[in-house]
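Entry 14. Structure prediction run on the chain below.
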Amino acid sequence: MRLPNYICDRWIESKGEGVPLVDPVTGARLASVGSDGLDLAAALDHARQVGGVALRQLSHAERAGMLARIADLLSAGREAYFDISRRNSGATEADAGFDVDGAIFTLKSYVRAARNLGDTRGWVEGGEVPLSKGGNFVGRHFLAPQRGVAIFINAFNFPAWALWEKAAPALLAGMPVLIKPATPTAWLAQRMVADVVEADILPAGALSVVCGGARDLLDHVREGDVVSFTGSADTARRIRTHPAIVERAVRVNVEADSVNSAVLGPDAGPGSAEFDLAVREVVREMTIKSGQKCTAIRRVFVPAAHAHALADAVATKLGKVTVGNPAAEGVRMGPLVSRAQQAAALEGIAALRTECELVCGGGENFEPVGASAGEGAFVPPTLLFCADGERAEVAHRVEVFGPVATVIPYADAASLARMVRRGEGSLVASVYSSDAAFTDALVADIADLHGRLMLVDAAVGGDHTGHGNVMPTCLHGGPGRAGGGEELGGMRALGLYLRRHVVQGSPERIAALAAGCADAALLSA
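Output returned:
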C-alpha cells in the first residue's frame, strides 16, 4: 500500500519506491510514503490563493464550527485510528489514547474557547490612541491573519495530537495548513487528513498533507508564511538558517530537545504523600508511549538522604511493568517506533553509563513478551543513578528519547538550582513538596528556563494533570535548548498566525474598521 499526498486539492502518489512504514513489533512492512515528484511550490501557492482566501471570508464562528465537525468526525473514527497507532507506532491502548484522544480533546477545547467570537473576522487591540490635539486623528492596533501558509513539520511521536494542536488555532485564525508528518509514523496523520477531506468539512485549499521528505519545501516559503517545527535541535537550526526563511523573515516556532526534570523536596521523605506521588509520576513518564514524549521526565533530583530510597522504589515499580507486543495480555509498554530509534536510545544509555550507575534495565538479555527482541524495536525501562551531578556532563546534556531516566542526588537548594539549570532550557519541571519556602525559592531560581512548572503537594494529590500531559488551555513550549517556541495556551496560540499593525486616521474611519472585530484581550484569556 502506497499512501498518497494531498496537495492542490488532489491526491498524488510520489514517484519511485518510497520509504517503507513498518510495524515496530515485528518489523513487517505496512505501507510506503514518499514526496518525490511533488510540486511543492504549487502546493503552497494553491493554499495561499485558494485556501487562505476562503478561510478569511468566514467568521470566527464559522471556522470554529468546522473544527467542531472535525472533532466529531475524528471521534467517530477513533477505533480505526487506534488500530493504525498500534500497528505503525507499537502503541498500547493507553498510548493510542494519549495521542488520538488528546487530538480530539484539543480540537474541542478550541471550539469552546471560540464560542464568544460570533461573526467577527479580525481583532482589535486596546482603545484608540489620540494623536492630535483636536482629537480628529487617532491610532488603534489591529491583528489580522497572515496571508500565507501554516507549515507544520512534525515529530514521529504524536502523529495525531501534533497535527491538530497546531492546525486548530491556525485554521481558527484563518490560515490554511500544510502538514509534513514525520515519515516513520505518517500513516495516522495521512488517514486523518483523508477522512476530513472526504467529509468535505474545510474549504478547498485549506488542508494539505505531504508524506515522506520535505525536499525543497522551505525553498518556496515567503513573507506571511509560518513554519512550526517539532523535533531535534539540529534540524531546528537548519530550518531557522534556511536562506528563504532568513531572506523573507518567515516566522518560525520550534519545539526541540528537552532534558526535563522532576524534583523531590527535602521535606518529602519515604512514606510521605509527595514521595509516593513522585515515584508514581516518574514511572508513568518513563513508560507511557515508551518514554517517547518531549515532555517526559529525564532527570530526577532527590535530596541525597532519600536518593537511593527513591531509586529503589522506582526500580521496584518498573520491575512490574510488562514490556512487549501490545496485543499480548498484560503488556503495559510497547516498543519504540523504529529500529533507528531503538539504536539511538541504546547509544544514549551507553553514554549515560559512562558517568552513571545502572539501577535497572539497560537492554542486555532482554526478551519482550509476545515478540522477538531481534525483530522489534524494544528497549526496557532503564533507570540510572548519577552520584555526582555537579561534575556530571552527560546526564545534563544527553536526552535519551525512550524509557530512560536518571536519579541525581542534591545536597542543598543552591546545588539543586545549578543542576536543574544545566538543562539549558526545558519544556517542563515538576516539584513534589509541601515546603512552600523551598518551592517558591526554586520557582524563582528556574522559572526563566522552563515553559511550565508543575507543583504537587499532598493537597493536590493525584488530581494533577500530569508532568508530561500538555493541556490545550496552558502554554506549551520552552526557552533555550527546548526551542524557544510557544504553542497552545488557549486562544494565545492564535497569535502565532496573526500580524499586529496600527491604523491611523479619523475616529470615524478607525471605528468603522474596528466594527466586526473581536477584542484582542480574548487572545490572552
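The longest helix spans residues 93-113.
Filed with the rest of this week's runs.
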